Structures are given as C-alpha cells and as structure tokens.
Amino acid sequence: MNVRDPLPSEDREHQSSLGGDTPAERRIKNLLDAAVSEDEPTPRRRRYRETSQSPGGEAQRYGSAGPESVPRKTGQTAGTTDPVFRSQNDLSNDSGERDGMRRSTSQRGKSGRHTAPEATADGAGLKPGNDSKASQSHDTETTSKSNSYDSIADASGDSMPLVEERSDEIPQQSNPLEDDLPLAREAQRAVRVLNPAGEVTMPRPPRRRVIAVANQKGGVGKTTSAVNLAVALALHGNRVMVIDLDPQGNASTGLGVEHGAGTPSVYEALVDAMPLEEIEQRVDGIPSLHCIPATIDLAGAEVELVNVVAREARLEKIIAAYGGEVDYILIDCPPSLGLLTVNALVAAEEVLIPIQCEYYALEGLGQLLRNIELVKAHLNSRLRVSTILLTMYDKRTKLADQVEKEVRGHFSEIVLDSVVPRSVRVSEAPGYGQSIMTYDPGSRGATSYFEAAEEIAHRGAKLSSRRSVQKNEKGRN
Predict the structure, then answer these.
(1) What are phi and psi of 386, to 5 degrees?
(2) What is the pLDDT of residue 461?
(3) Are 372 and 397 within 8 A, CB to CB?
(4) Closest C-alpha to 202, from 217, 210, 192, 211
(5) Is the per-residue pLDDT at 15 higher than 90?
(6) pLDDT at position 175, please?
(7) Rg, C-alpha atoms of the chain
(8) Rounded to an integer, what distance in angstroms lies between the CA atom of residue 164 and that of residue 89?
C-alpha cells in the first residue's frame, strides 16, 4: 500500500488494529489522526516569526522563539504531520516546519528517527519554489488572524520595531523629600533637634522666665517634660536652669547629674539658705544647662520648715539672690500640693501643666486650678497658667481624642499645638542618664518636645513685647 495515499474510510477500523511496528504503519496512523482533526479551528497565538529561505533551502519559521510559539492543532501530537494530503515534497516541507521544529535541534523524518534539520530537508528533496509559496500562504493567513506582533524577525537576525502606543507626556519627577528613606528623614529630624551648629534658633526672652511644672496627679509626665523642654531650649541658644524639687530626684537622674547622699542639693538651699551658685551642676554635653539636684533629704524639709517664718517663700528668696545669667528656670514640682509645691508656685511667674490624655488627669485638674487661684490671691499675684501640654497621647484610642477636644475647648489659647505621643523611647532615655533629645533625637518624642519648646519660646517673646508696649503706654499717660 502506498503510505502517501489517503486511506478509505472502511480501512480505518483495520488501521486501528495496526500495532505500529513498522515506519509505514506509524505513518498511516499519523495521517489518520491528522485527518480527524482537520476541521477543528487552529488556536491563535500572539507570537509569529517571519519565514525566510535559509541557504540550505529550508524555511526557518520561528527563529529563536522555540517550539512554544508553534501553532498547534487540537489532537495533534509531536510526531504528526499536516492534515492536508499533498505531494511528497509538501508533506516533508510541512512536517519540517510544523512538527519537526517543535524540537529546537532535531525533527522527525520519514523513518521516524531524529535527524538534523538540514539532513531531513536534503533527504526529502525540498524545492525552494514550493517552500516559498507554502511559507507565503501560511504567513498571510497568520497575519490576518493576529492582532499584534511583539517582533518580526528573519533568519538573518534583522528585526522590525514594535508597534506600540507612545505618549508624548513628560513624566513628572517626584519630590526628592518624598523619596527619602525613613532613615534619612530621621537623620534630618535629629540634626534639627540637636542643632550641631549651635545657632540661636529659639528667641531669648528679654528677662528671666521662672516656670513651675506642676500637677498633683502623678505619672502625667511632669519630670519628663521639664527635663526635655530644658534640654531643647538649651540646645537652641537659651541658658536654662532646672531645679529638682521632687525628693525622688528623677529630674536629676534624667539630666545625668550626681544626687546621691551627701551631695549639696536643694535641701541645703531651703533649710540652710545655701546659695544656688554653690549647688548647681553643669549637665555634660550641654554647657548652657545647669541643674540643682535633689536628694532624699528633701523629704524631711516640709517638717523642718513648719516653724520657719515665711516658709512658703523660701525658694523665691533663693532664686532672687541667684546672680547667674539664665533665661529660663524650670522647677520640677512633686506630685502633691504640699509645702514644696507651694514654694514653687510662689517663686514662679508661670505655671506649665502637663496633662495626660486620660480621665483621671482631667479629674485632678480642677483642684490644681483652684489652688493656683488661692496662691495668686494671697501669695503671688503675678502667677498665671501660661501653658498646658498634652502628654502620652495615644492616637489609637478615642479617649485621647475626647480629652484633647475638651482641654482645647476649655483652655483654647494656652494649650500648645504640639502633643507628646506615648513612646517607649521616652521612657528608656532616663535609664541611660539622658533626655530623649540626646538619647534618640530623631524619634517622635524628641520632635514633639522640640516643637513644644519652640512654641514656648516664641510665645514668651510675644508676651514680653506686649508687656513692654503696655508699660510704655501707661508711662505716657
């Protein structure tokens, strides 16, 4: 039987029983499988290659795209040929193009053995003319079915440009600050807080400002606020002194000064009237910052001052006798309304109240304000509440927002815009004898205290200028 002639339909049952032992029987089986799948549509692929005549007379259709880009009909295997029955040359040609090129280095010939593409083409006796016509007809069909081409390449390596939609719009360059890494932004904040150039970036007040940091509620951030505000003011050109009036001595610890037993402290100043010049200690690394430490002896000062005349004004007299040049004196009060706190309120002209963003802090605020009014009425008429600082703000809770709204709605102008968030880094700093400004200057806590100190400095400068104008107007009248 001629294996190249189509089999009649009645021979298909006989063909199904063929064992495929000889190359001729395998050829017959391949032709039958191809004839069954002849009418099924060919799946459309998006990648095609130009067909060009190779020097050996064979059409290299797919270039370097490999066997994956070959359109394959349903039900056709790697060894099948074109379903259309043609001459020996056409069958060999299509077999070399469609089926044999599924393998990048070899193709299946008539005998079923793997031979090189050149050898198969030569052995089949391909004619360049027939090959070119078959290639052109196939390319015309695939071109009409394809919607787009990724590239069109021939065997010589030449390529045609892709057809793409190009926009004439110029891409906008992003802001360099937005592209900075978080580490770079943190470094910028640290430089801003530390002020390594030593410039006076916060205005100095025309006269000394004595501020008492007070709140009878414990754990609201009095000591932390006093220490960090003092460091921030000192780093930016102001001369600052911190008086630790709390027997626990936490402010002394935060500034890294010695406050052990036997160290001259504020106790000697209150009880023995020792001058502050003999007690003050300079804070390491910040030349313009001084500290009056507190020791455990201060706990007995209230008992020892009971029979002293004008015991509530002892601290005021000591500060008035201090001859050093200083712009700010911050007094860290104990968490009570005892004699030590009263001494601080009498000596100060302003009161800074740290308020924790919780309900208990608001509950004790009313009582503190009443005591301030009593001191103002009987002991210190110059006293006023100048600043309220919100601390330990947790943005994850609605309670913090409610407390902030209530405080700002009631006190409005004296509440600082800066809010100190709850931060672990702020709590870690005293363990190293540092403030958050020097321990982690790029943190959120350091940035918040820096902004708060900046507000205090600018507000103080405005108030001082207003008072001077009012005095001049009274003198003219």
Answers:
(1) -100, -25
(2) 82
(3) no
(4) 192
(5) no
(6) 54
(7) 46
(8) 40
Spell out the residues 6+ positions from residue 291 whose beta carbon is closer than 8 angstroms to its own. 241, 242, 243, 244, 251, 252, 255, 257, 280, 281, 282, 283
Neighbouring-strand partners of residue 61: none
Can you give the length of the chain in residues? 477
Reading the block at residue 189, the tokens are 């904040």
Has residue 239 got a pLDDT over 50? yes
Distance (Å, rounded) from C-alpha 390 to C-alpha 420? Answer: 6
Residue 159: in which H helix or E strand, if any? strand 159-160
Distances in whole angstroms, Cα of residue 466 to Cα of each of 327, 383, 417, 455: 18, 17, 21, 17
Q: Report the C-alpha gap between 191 and 429 in whole angstroms.
A: 18
Look at residue 91 and tell me whether its pLDDT is greater than 80: no
Which of the pair, 65 or 420, is modelled with greater confidence? 420
Helix H or strand E encompassing 345: helix 339-347
Please state, in angstroms and rounded to a whole number, the distance separating the CA atoms of residues 408 and 402. 10
Cα distances (angstroms) measured from residue 157 to each of 62, 179, 268, 370, 455: 12, 42, 96, 93, 71
Report the Cα–Cα distance between both ends of the chain, in Å, rounded. Answer: 135
Q: Where are the beta strands (DSSP E) in 405-453?
A: 415-421
Q: Among 316, 324, 318, which residue's Cα sits nearest to residue 282?
A: 324
Q: Which amino acid is at 352?
A: L
Mean pLDDT of 240-263: 93
pTM, whole model, 2 decimals?
Answer: 0.62
Q: Is 85 exposed, middle or buried (0-12, 13-18, 19+ CB in 10 A)?
A: middle
Helix (H) or strand (E) holding 462: helix 444-476
The rounded percent of the chain whose pLDDT value lies above 70 is 60
Per residue in 185-225, pLDDT (tens digit) is 888 888 889 888 888 889 999 899 999 999 988 889 999 99
Q: How far apart are CA 144 and CA 148, in angstroms?
A: 10
Return d(Cα 84, Cα 102) in angstroms, integer.
19
At 57-87, the pLDDT tens digits run 444 444 444 444 444 444 444 444 444 444 4
